[in-house]
Amino acid sequence: MRTIRLAFRNLLRTPVTTAVAVVSLALGIGANTAMFSVMDQVLWRTLPVPEPERLAFVYHPGPLQGSVSTDEGGGPSFSYPVYLGLARQQTAFTGLAAARSSGASISYANNAIRGSVHIVTGNYFEVLGVRAAMGRVLSRADDVTRGGHPVAVLSHKYWSNTMGSNPAVLNQTIVVNGTPLTIVGVAQRGFENERVGADPELFVPVAMRPQVIPSRRGERDEVDDLDNRRVHWITIFGRLKPGTTLAQAQAALDVPYRAQVEEDIKAYSTPSKTLVEQVRAKHIVLKPGKHGRGGLRGGARTPILLVLCITAVVLLIACANVANLLLARASTRSREIALRLSVGATRWQIIRQLLTESWVLAGVSGAAGLLVAVATLRLMIASVPARGGPSLTATLDVSVLLLSLGLCLATGVLFGLYPAIQASRADVASAIKDQAGQASAGGAANGFRKALTVGQMAASLALLVTAGVFGTSLLKQLRMELGLRADHLISFSVDPSLNKYTPAQTASFYERLERGLAAAPGAMLVTSTAVPVIAGSNWSENITVPGFAASRDEDNDSYMALIGPAYFRTMGTPLLAGREFTESDTVAGQPVAIVNETFADFYFKDGQAIGRVFSEGSGDKLVPVTIVGVTANAKYSSLKEKPRRVFYIPYRQRKNMPALNFYVRTAAPPERLAPQLRRVVAEIDPNLPIDNLKTMDAQLAENMAEERLMTNLVLAFAGLATVLAAIGLYGVMAFNVARRTREIGIRMAIGATGGDVRRMVLREAAWMLAVGTAGGVALAMGASRAVAAAMEEIAPASAGLYGLAAAALAVVALAAAWAPAVRATRVDPNRALHYE
Questions:
Q1: What is the model's pLDDT at position 414?
Q2: For 440-476, what is the HEC assignment?
Q3: d(CA 691, CA 739)
Q4: How far, in Å, CA of 80 to CA of 793, rounded?
Q5: Which of 278, 308, 629, 646 is most buried, by the most CB atoms less than 10 A from its CB?
């Protein structure tokens, strides 16, 4: 304790130095703590269930025939009949369960919200080992009779946040998409579901899906998701039997899957020989399930690791700064240390005292770093999209706090050990003769300080180039050709089936809504689509084109969009040939389609797509569709995607009307029309909620939210590193000016001008900058290539980017060196000759 108290007293004697060190380290430790927290929440945390390492998720990559709906990349999903077949015949698991989330209108106590319902098999909670916080969870008995189990289990978050943890909700009624369900329990605290990044409000048995979730609207005929092998929508997972490895379970599950594949092929509509061969070659693939499922973890891993590497570099630069400060501080204490050594102190005691000061400094910095970490997390949470992004909290759990403590201890040694060893080597004789400043002026310590500064500048340049790479990539996405006009466009979605509309009532509602929107002041054009544009949604269908034979590596899958009249005119997508859909393209008319360029070029090599026919449908009901138009390629789901094969169908030619997203092109700024759009819907049905009311510019920004966040983080940390490097350079130059005070005084006494002295000081800084820039370019080239290899959409840095980064670093570095240079010219020769 005496050593610690002495350490505090010594640090307080130099408050400016201590404050600069604390701020530098706090920023570095805080940034790393924040990124470790993100990594822990997104990548490392296991599902809060018993023995999560025994969970495994089931995939079957490869072609399919029929429709595919999935909430996770890397699927695809399974049909429900396949799940039942595997669950009955498998031998490697204690149980196989399945689940799928779906959007829903949820109403409790006359308070309706737009939320998410998790459709699960009756053994879902049993397989996961999840208990109830109150009441009970779903059981196998709740999933036997179709439509016969109107029960629900609430998620703990929904129950606590929305219902105030009210225990009286048990056995009360909650209405989901117009279907009343009885609340039988609340899931255990901390458990949301098996999919990362999705937080459903409640869980409902699969047997209730036809009642709770409207059937696949938009199909030409009513489709039963539960019995149709061509409708793939549910995800399967299981719990391994004790002692069973993932490889053993995969081989065992592949046996019953072979029988399911043959049953699937029997249900296919005129499959090609190639497709049958490809389907029969498919195999089950199991993936570890202890961290949950979802594309979020796979997609977020590389960006998070990259930012973590950047924050680690920032911390190293901060440590270099503090090491420089401590070396300078030690040189001013050389007389004190020499006196201690002369009266019997050992070198170990000196090193221990100085290391203690370093750890105290690191501890104080770590405490401040926690505040920085929480602030950083809050900024990141505010930047994450509300939908589809990771569910992050600004709370630092025990593991992150322990990690932060470890960082403090490690940095204390990293920046404190060399200065402590160097200080313990003080020359007792020269120090006691009051020659401390000169004795410690040069040598290894000064060279080490310069080397640290050069390293800081090199690392800063590499980070600046990396930030420029991300910024350039983001700028390219902002400027890329979308195939549509995003300006003056506003959209929202409505789903009449949530209020139990019949298909005829839905058709009538849409007609009234289109007329009302067109008549709204400021509205120029109105259209609609079942697949929201550039919003991450997909709808793929297997089609048959007469005379077209796919190669072994190709499939007939194309993406579909059900759209309203004047769609391409409203969206600003050029129509290259043929015509748009009109209000006369209804169920009673000839089935028609418009295809994009990629679709036409793929299937019709002669370039003549207008008038050609392809078949689309389900089961044995293949419907011939005539192509009446060809449109330019437009982004479908994501800004990053390559051109897809897309065909467009009039939604009016569907008996089973889909939920639609309406798009209104406006004359005035689109935000001004938002209240009017709500009013139009409310006038038709005041009880029907609208969702996702936003401008197209806002939708594009949301689609690029991850790229923006990544770019902002890299740019912020690169800027922070550059500032820290500038502080380090300033510290070195200021110390050197102070060390050379007598020399500068002599130079000025024999005729040197202020300009000569400034050039001398700036020349030293310029040499360090040149060496640092050379090293930084080498580091940046390696970092740029590594980033481009890890992230496909990122291109390596251009020569111009290196030049801009080097120029920015030079401006900051020389600005940092200018103040010591100016101070050097103000040295009074008379006083300098008596210095020390």
A1: 73
A2: CCCHHHHHHHHHHHHHHHHHHHHHHHHHHHHHHHHHH
A3: 68
A4: 36
A5: 646
Residues 611 and 593: their CA atoms lie apart, in Å, by: 10
Q: Token pair 């005729």 is at which residue?
A: 751
Chain mean position to CA 720: 22
pLDDT (0 to 100) of residue 293: 81
Closest CA to 594 of 624, 629, 566: 629
3-class SS at 116? strand
With a cut of 90, say whether residue 228 has pLDDT above it.
Answer: no
Q: Which residue is associated with the tokens 């991450």? A: 536
Q: Which of 653, 703, 31, 818 is nearest to 374 (CA)?
A: 31
CA–CA separation, 419 and 358 (whole Å):
10
CB 422 within 8 A of CB 330: yes
| 140-179 pLDDT per residue, tens | 999 999 999 999 999 999 999 889 999 999 999 999 988 8
CA 624, 630, 633: angle at the middle one, nearest 5?
120
Q: Do residues 152 and 182 touch, judged by C-beta distance below 8 A?
A: yes
Strand spans (E) along 149-233: 151-154, 173-176, 179-187, 202-205, 231-232
Nearest-angstrom CA–CA distance, 282 and 469? 39
Given a cut of 70, whether residue 273 has pLDDT beyond it is: yes
Which residue has better confidence, 351 or 186? 186
Distance from C-alpha of 358 to C-alpha of 325, rounded to nearest angstrom: 11
Closest CA to 376 of 658, 30, 83: 30
Contact criterion met (CB below 8 Å) for 359 and 8: no
| pLDDT tens digits along 561-609 | 999 999 999 999 999 999 999 999 998 889 999 999 999 999 998 888 9
The answer, yes or no, to whether residue 511 has pLDDT greater than 80, is: yes
β-bridge mates for residue 112, sequence order: 107
Report the alpha-carbon distance of residue 261 to residue 277 in Å, rounded.
11
Contact between 79 and 232 (Cβ < 8 Å): yes
Q: How many CB atoms lie within 10 A of CB 755?
A: 9
Task: Label residues 178-202 b or e (16+ Cβ within 10 Å = b).
Answer: bbebebbbbbbeebbbbbbbbbbbb
Tell the residue number behind the tokens 């030049």, with chain if given: 803
What average pLDDT does range 259-285 have in this prediction? 87
Tokens coding 462: 């590499």
Candidates 473, 566, 464, 545; CA nearest to 813 is 464
> How far is 30 from 284, CA to CA, in rounded Å?
44
For 434-466, what is each residue's pLDDT tens digit? 544 443 444 566 777 788 888 888 888 888 888
- Provide CB contacts within 8 A for 115, sequence distance 6+: 103, 104, 105, 106, 158, 200, 201
* Closest listed residue to residue 691, CA positions, set 506, 492, 513, 489: 492
Strand pairing category for 55-59 and 285-288: antiparallel
pLDDT, tens digit, 9 for 90 and up, residues 671-695:
999 999 999 999 998 878 888 899 9
Q: Model-level pTM?
A: 0.72
Q: Is there a contact between 83 and 229 (Cβ–Cβ < 8 Å)? A: no
Continuous H helices in 489-645: 503-519, 567-571, 597-603
CB atoms within 10 A of CB 507: 19
Q: How many CA atoms lie within 13 A of 322 on its CB side?
A: 35
Integer Cα distance of 406 and 400 in angstroms: 10
Residue 382 parent element (H or E): helix 347-383
CA atoms of 748 and 827, how far apart (whole Å) = 8
Q: Which two tokens stand for residue 77?
A: 């999903």
Percent helix, percent strand, percent coil in the chain, to nearest 5: 50, 15, 30
**Is the CB of residue 714 less than 8 Å from the CB of residue 139?**
no
Q: Say which range, 73-87, 312-326, 528-542, has the weakest mean pLDDT.
A: 312-326
Question: CB–CB of 95/130 below 8 Å?
Answer: no
DSSP SS3 for 215:
coil
